[in-house]
Amino acid sequence: MSLEDCIYRSYNPERRPSHPWPSWHNHTGSHPRFSFCPTPGLSIARYEEAFRQEPDAWECFAISDHAFSIAIPEPGKSWPHVWYEDESILDTFRATGDTQRRFKAYREFCESFRDGVKFFTGMEIESSLSGRMSATMEEMEGLDLIIGSIHHNPGEPEKWVERHFFQLGRALALPCDIIGHPVRHLRAHSTQEQPLPEEIIDETLDMIKAAGVAIEINAHYPQIQDDVLMLRGACERGMEVAFSMDLHYPEEFGNWRYFEDVVELSEINYDDLKLFHPRRSAVPGKMEAV
Ligand SMILES: [Zn+2]
Ligand SMILES: [Zn+2]
To answer: What is the mean pLDDT of residues 102-113?
Structure first.
């Protein structure tokens, strides 16, 4: 996907914010690069500028950089593709002390901007095949929220549904408050004309609800046909919803339009949604969820 693919264009060119939006999942790319995927221009100063540029669009941002790129300071080795099945890479950087130093620096970074009103702090975590995280519980202490996401889902292509539910169970067994982009890894099986089967969305929501975790409507890779179904299903189940830009590039700040479109197409009043708010009560889920 190119940068252009990540810029959402509303079907309504006149779109204005109907209210200020939270964005509970976002990255930074500025020095010292706690996430490697965003561009360096995506700094806290750039987020502050967003409040000045579009005050009607923004309620708050949470910064939730990738645990794996904090834990593993070498970009080529940090993505779960490298360590999902081989955790020795995690151990290597812990043995040098680099991992511990990076998590300490991330905590100090978070303390430098958090105000609990406009800026919150978090982390995006993921599971190895065996269920291990790249951060420890102590390294997540004091953050406002934790997002559990699936970034690597290897295996037999024809077993994509089984692999999805296996991975979702793994993510829900982590101490997370939100499941990030719950069906992004299934987007190859979804088109505007033919969204993901409703049974997959339903079972996904049922599992997330049973774990007491919020779902995310994520604007980074628009998947509107599935997100409309997911928002409706979450509302029917009384589940918490976290709206997240998952910002990687400054050019994506206009993507609040995605939230407006998803809510409008789902025919739900924003005020009727059970919105996520940080409370940091996340505890490791139950492995029976797998
Ligand atoms: Zn993610
Ligand atoms: Zn992310």
So the answer is: 97
